[in-house]
Amino acid sequence: MIGSSAAPPPGTPHPAWMPSAWIAEDVLPRRIMAWLIDAVLIAILAATLWTSGFLFGLLTLGLGFPVLRLLPIVPLAYPWLFLVSPLSATPGQRMMDLIVRRNDDLGPPSGTEALISVLAYYATLGLGAIWLGIALITPRHRTPHDLLSGLVVIRARAYAAASLTPAAGAWNMRPGGRFNA
Question: Which residues of 89-108 are buried (b: 16+ CB within 10 A; e: fewer)?
């Protein structure tokens, strides 16, 4: 009938109770806080490594100063190493109860996916951080680097409570089998 909505099939949960609706709840403000925490941790790590490298250069009468050339990889290696670890999140994300998973099956990110995410993130910043505003309009608040890498940031506690595993299949499927974005 025109103008009437068909009732969902029996046994179909209300959309508000679907894992895809609540497992990504309040992710955006948590991501911002996690970013701030990680920025401070990266700055502390870089300062510590710079000081150590500088002292090493002085102790070796200048021969150790080329070690300081490795410092620019710290902001790239920091998120990548944590995303491929069993934690699947940076320390800031863990403090804010977030984890990074593959969007299609909620499995942990592979090394390639994590690398694409990190490189795309810095490319997004280089093109202007305004592109991160895409997270305001995408389902699950995914940013351009999430979309390019196929990853999603979700609440760790909700993920554990739902007992969602890659085999569960409830994450990315709507009734009728269509994929969510």
Answer: bbebbbebbbbbbbbeebeb
